[in-house]
Amino acid sequence: MRLFSEQECRQGVGLPFEIQQKLRSGDFAFVTEMGRNLQLDEQVLCTANYMINVFFTRRSYLNYDRHIVSTSALILSCKLHNFKRQNKRIYPIAFVSYYHNIIHSKLHTNSDRQPPVFDENLKAEYLSKIFKAEFKLMKTLEFDMEIDLPIYYLDLIIDKLYAGVEDRAIFLTMARVMANESMRTIAPLCIRALAVAVASVVLAGVICNMPRPQQLIRIPNPEEWWTNVSPDLQLSEITQAMRIIMEALTLK
Predict the structure, then answer these.
(1) Closest Cα partner for 49 from 179, 147, 184, 241?
(2) Which stretches of the chain drop beneath a pLDDT of 70?
(3) Which end of the chain is more exposed for a tag (fewer CB within 10 A), N or C?
């Protein structure tokens, strides 16, 4: 996974950053809604969101149908994660059906117009657009499908910093919420997944009223607490991730 600079991410498509962030939040909401309907797990959704964010860091929002790109990212992510849902294979036509339902429920909410009939011709049109977008996604990702995610590290970090904490399940759930929130930001694009995961745990700790990591006297070297997770970590990348996530939350 290639990391971008933060400046690249902020200026990549020539739009003001606040507008970019609102578009990212919209894509995140679309992926979440379709994923909930199709009962996809969070690894699939996080991977799809990462792909979408990389795509629109390198390509302009003005040249693509964001919802087609998002649907393509979900299909590609499912392929990477064995294309299964609760041990049942899930097919592209299911994504096409939900794409049609979601898009036209938004377009026709306050209108007397009826959505187009979801016939074979329309299915074929959607599939053609989605498969073309899927190839463009892979090309934009330079066919690098080894995608690291913050959610992979949460258990490890909590065990390293907050071993034996009460209500661990609640704490882990909040950490997962923050890690998922990070996927609608540029943080995973410009900061290592492990550092984003640590930032997510620290923010979850604030929400759950946990002690700050530097106050955890039971861990070795609390003044440099992040080294208990990994000696390669830098405090600067953790604080950078926290700043970016908090910025996105205020723009939500």
Answers:
(1) 184
(2) 12, 83-89, 105-115, 217, 251-252
(3) C
Dist CA 132 CA 244 (whole Å) = 32
Domains belonging to the chain, first-starting first, are 6-140 (1.10.472.10), 150-251 (1.10.472.10)
Contacts of 182 (CB under 8 A, 6+ apart): 150, 188, 196, 199, 200, 241, 244, 245
Helix (H, G, I), strand (E, B) or coil at 85: strand
Query: What is the structure's pLDDT at 232?
Result: 94
Determine the pLDDT at residue 181: 93
How far is 138 from 145, CA to CA, in rounded Å? 8
Read off the pLDDT of residues 185-198 as tens digits, 9 standing for 90 and up. Answer: 999 999 999 999 99
pLDDT of residue 197: 98
> 75: Cβ–Cβ under 8 A, 6 or more apart, which residues?
92, 95, 130, 134
Instruction: Determine contact, residues 191/197, Cβ cutoff 8 Å.
Output: no
* pLDDT for 61: 82
Cα distances from 248 to residues 2, 24, 29, 191, 243, in angstroms, run: 22, 10, 14, 15, 9
CB-CB contact of 100 with 127 (8 Å)? no
Each residue of 3-19: pLDDT tens digit? 989 998 888 677 888 88
Distances (CA, A) of 62 to 14, 79, 147, 153: 10, 27, 26, 35
User: Would you give the distance in Å from CA 209 to the centre of its chain?
Assistant: 25
Q: How far apart are CA 79 and CA 81, in angstroms?
A: 5
pLDDT of residue 120: 86
